Amino acid sequence: MAVRSLAPLVECLGLALLVPSAGGGQDVVPPRQQHTSIVINIEVPVRVLRKDAFVDGLTLADFEVFENGVRQPVEAVYLIRDREVQREETAPGSSPPRPHKVRNYVLYLDLKEYMPKVGEALDFFFSDVLGAEDSLFVVTPAKTYKFRSEYLARVSRRDVAEKLKGILRTDIQIGNSRYRNMMVDFYKLEDEEFPPEMADVKENLLFEQAKDIRDLTELTEERVLGFADVLKSLEGEKHVFLIFQKEVLPAHSFADDRQAELVKPVVFDIEKIKRYFSDAAITVHCLYITKKPAFATRDLVQGRQTLTSQLLELSSDIFASFREMAVATGGLTETTANPNAALRQAAEASSNYYLLYYRPLDYRADGRFQEIVVRVKGEGLKVTHRLGYVAD
Questions:
Q1: Strand bridging mode 369-376 / 388-390
Q2: Domain residue ranges of the chain, discontinuous segments joined by +
Q3: Distance from C-alpha of 144 to C-alpha of 138, rounded to nearest angstrom
Q4: Exposure check for the chain: N or C terminus, fewer CB within 10 A?
Q5: How far apart (Å, rounded) are the C-alpha atoms in residues 304 and 5?
C-alpha cells in the first residue's frame, strides 16, 4: 500500500537493481552516492504569492536572506517562469552558478482505486509540465517505473499518458488486492451469525483482522531518509508529487481501549525529517485525496434511513508527516477530492519561482544544520522556501 512504495523507489534508484523501464529494456542505476560536496554557493528556490497568484516583478533588491539570523549578501536572483529562466540579476563582482537545466520528476501515486480525475491529471502533466529533457519516475501501488528522457523525446506524450493510465489501473488492482480482500473478509465475518455465547470470540476475531489491516501500512524513519538520499543522488532539480488517497479501517465500533490501540502513529523524528529533506534541491508537494475507496464504505440502515458508516482513518499521521516534508522544501500541501486541480496547482508552483544564490559569510563544514529565512519587501505576500542546509 501507499507508503510501502517508498521501498521500490529506493531500490530502483539506489541499489543498482535492474528496474522496469517504460521506454523498453532496462536501466542500470548506479549505487547511491553520499552527499559530500563542499558548499560554495547556497541555492534557494523561493515562491512569492499574493492572494495565491505568483508575483513575478521582484528584483534582487527586494530579497533579504538570513542564515542562522545573520543577513547574507544575495549574489543572484533568477526568475523562473514555465521552467525557463525569464530574467536574471547578479550582484556586482559575483559569479554565481547557472540554474539547473536537468529536472527529475517523481509522481508518487498511492491510490486505492482508479479515478477519472487522475487520468485528467496525467494528461495535463505529460502535455504541460514534463519537458523534453526531463526524467520521470512513477511510483504506483505495485511498482516503480523510470521514463527516460530519450524515450519521452521520441514518443507522443498522449501515447505515454494513455500507456501510464493503463499501467496505473492494473497496478492499483494488484497493489491493493490484499487490502481490498481483507476489508471484504472483515465485513463478511461481521455479518456472520455467531451464537450469543460466542460474541466475545467474534469480537476478538474482528479486532485481530482490523489490526492486520492496520499493519499493512508501514512508514519508518529509515525508509523516509533513504528516499531523501535517493533524491539527493540525482543530478539537477527534483520535484516530487506525493499523491495519496485516504486509507481507512473497517467501520466497526470496538471498545474504546481497543479503538485507541488501532491507531498507529508515526513515531519518527519529524524535525529530523524536515531538515533532511530541506538539505538538497528537492521540492515535495503533498496532495492528499480525501475520497474514501468505494470498497471500504458500508451503509448502515437505521429505521428508514441509510447512513454511511464512520471509518477510522489510518492516513492522517502519514499526511502530517508528508506535509512536513513539503513545508521543509517550500512545496505545496493540498487536501482535495480533485487530484486534477491539485496537481495543476502543484505543477504551477514547481514551474514558477525565484532562484536565489548566496555565499555564506562564515561557512564551516561542521555538519550542522544552517537555518535559512528569506524575507521579501512588500505587504500581503506569502513566501515559501526550503528551511536550510547541512554544512558538510
A1: antiparallel
A2: 2-390
A3: 6
A4: C
A5: 43
